């Protein structure tokens, strides 16, 4: 959620004011404060305006210096680009492709184990292009890798997936170490 306000007009010669009624595609309603929902590529963004003395426009966004500062800064950047009719640009906080691939592998291994597959079968299907001979399995490097993958999968399924909802921020503990 972003908070907008009206500040003195002598801040900068290039600053502009925004009238909520002129925001295309936005839903605007007044409760205690003026609320604006505008669509974006990553979902709907919420803007709350702190308009005093009957003002009908705003010209500043307030960004508190807290744990969500970077997220709000990115939302403000996307809002600014939308006002300028430009594409939103890259999304801050998107889970990197390598991490997505690792989480998918973890969950596939977890599903295989729940379906009754043994570790060697999981390794052959998910990690190897060739079958692993039973006599080689005891010392095979994939045995240790499958065990590590399943440990991560257990943490992910046991509640660690919630960390993905807060990415890139931490909930206080890392679930995927």
Quaternary structure state of the chains depicted: single chain
Strand content: 5-15%
Tally of separate helices? 6
Helix content percent band: 25-40%
Question: What value does the Rg take, in angstroms?
Answer: 24 Å
Distance between the termini: 31 Å
Q: How many strand segments?
A: 5
Q: Which secondary structure elements does this structure contain, and how are they paired or packed?
A:
Elements: E1 2-5, E2 27-30, E3 34-40, E4 43-50, E5 60-62, H1 69-83, H2 97-114, H3 119-126, H4 134-137, H5 141-160, H6 162-166
Parallel strand pairs: 1-4
Antiparallel strand pairs: 1-5, 2-3, 3-4
What does this protein look like?
The protein has 6 helices and 5 strands; from the N terminus they run βββββαααααα. The chain is an alpha+beta fold. It folds into 2 domains: 2-83, no CATH class; 97-166, no CATH class. The protein is rod-shaped. The two termini are 31 Å apart. The relative contact order is 0.11. The model has no long low-confidence stretch (mean pLDDT 80).
Question: What is this structure, in a nutshell?
Answer:
With 177 residues, this protein is of the alpha+beta class. It has 6 helices and 5 strands; from the N terminus they run E-E-E-E-E-H-H-H-H-H-H.
